[in-house]
Design goal:
Blueprint lengths: L6 E6 L8 H10 L13 E5 L28 H5 L4 E2 L1 H4 L14 E2 L27 E5 L8 H5 L5 E3 L6 E3 L9 H5 L5 E4 L4 E4 L4 H5 L5 H4 L6 E5 L6 H8 L4 E3 L9 E4 L5 E3 L5 E5 L3 H7 E2 L6 H23 L5 H6 L4 H4 L3
Parallel strand pairs: 1-12
Antiparallel strand pairs: 1-10, 2-5, 3-4, 6-7, 8-9, 11-12, 11-15, 13-14
Amino acid sequence: MPVKRQIRMVADLNKCLGCHTCTMACKTMWTDRNRGQMHMYWNNVETQPGMGYPKNYETQGGWFNVADRNSIPLPNISEAYGSPWEYNYYEVLQTDGDDTSASELVPSPEPSGSGVYSSNWDEDVGAGIFPNSYYFYLPRICNHCTDPPCVDACPRQAVYKREEDGIVLVDQTRCRGYHHCVKGCPYKKIYYNPEEKVAQKCIFCYPRIEEHKGNFCATQCVGRVHHVGYAEDTSSSVYKLINKWKVALRLHPEFKTEPNVFYIPPFSPPTYSSTGKVTSTPRIPFEVLARLFGDTPGQSLNQRADRVKEIFDTIQSERNKVASGGNSELIELLIPHSETDRIQV
């Protein structure tokens, strides 16, 4: 069924602090109540370059590129997502006036073994060699794709796009936990609940969208990273950033799902030469960003790298204009002064 309009999100990676407020807001709102949801982070913030969440999801494939769909691996909860643990908060953070019995937080049970992992296990690791090491943060939710493979994968038509806004949902009464949707999604943003025996995923906070409030991860973000609006609304910041200024790209467009979450690639400090001189080369290589972001499935990596550079040049040009006393619609869009400037639903 065609949708009447499509909701979209733009995340400005230049503003993401890696604080995980969006992750915890989402977790608190949706996945800390029911059984079988400990491993579910419908919103998570990854360090890039990194293995992502679930572990190495980018290499697992989806229905877009695998002829034998039965060969797609199903993420193992303990290995791909990690086994949960608790910390000795009470011993370290006592508030009743007594001395604390421990000086540092220790996980219990202690993670061990070669396969140990969690949602931010490789946080702040990144790549490169000092003094030119680098990393950046990448918040991820379900992309609510225009051509969602999870919808195509479900034999019971339990996964569907809402006609009114294109949000992808799972009908819990129809789902039988066949796992096809989990395998089908190349972003691995649909989860299997082993207790409830059903698939569950980000719902883009549709009850809040219906009340024109915006989704929780966006409204709770301390860095004001997110812009939310409709693809067809030419007055929205989402439309202007994607279609007018063309500074937002899709994550892995080669997956051929037409994701509706877009990203403004991050700037980075310059590198240092072997003699300690500052160079004009950005710390995060264009090639690294090009492997993640692009416009369409048909773009080559070189074309994607050119687009990243084009975005940097555009933003820098507009910055210079403002620094010289001029005005810039783009810069005004990128520094919203109120929630309504960036969330228009």
